[in-house]
Amino acid sequence: MSASVTATTASSGTYNAPAFWERLWRQSGINFVVFFLIAYVIYPSQPQVGAPADVLVAFYSGARTRILIAAVFSGMAVLNLMWFAAALRTTLADAGRDGWGAAVTASSAMVGALFLLLISISATLAYSNVGSGNQLLTSGLNDFLWACAVLTSFPRAMLIMSGSFGFWRAGLISNAVFGACVGAVVLGVVGGTTWLSGAFWAPDGAYARFVWPVIGLAWVLFASRVLLTRSPATRSGW
Predict the structure, then answer these.
(1) 51 near 139, Cβ under 8 Å?
(2) Residue 85 in domain
């Protein structure tokens, strides 16, 4: 009898309640922003496009520990981004907008994959001894990091678009807020055109490094607020 009571209590505890996991995943967007900012602060300033070989060796060898620690926090950020996208998709599905939810899944998967690629390349260069390796390859990979970061603008913009349009179509945000989100989408797509050399609009320029990331993080926080203020549907899917 006591064993049966204990099992019943455990099965109905806080950690076995769908509402607990529902709210936990809806907080993942905030967790993503926190881990991203921690990794951003820890990670040293990335050498610019076309940096000389001695600068690259000094960076990847001298800052090896910081780069690898930042890689761990970056991985946690990607993990929480995936959970955030899952919570976003289920919310849109509950509101009858599963088409936009599917777009969230596709775009977030692409963003996560590209982020992991960037993290992997940087961590590999830091973990290996770049000073005794092929300097031309190291320089090429460093430039590839910047180019790949620019190209992530498109799936990042798609993630904002799919979530924003889904919220709007579901009646979860006002027309004015939706207009601001559309502006964020446009600024995100424009971020994929930052190909000038050594200027504000360069791959390593201020727009790609600061302006566009801030816009993306602000949208994630906004979307997290929408998720947390909406009452979750009653289901056992978690």
Answers:
(1) yes
(2) yes
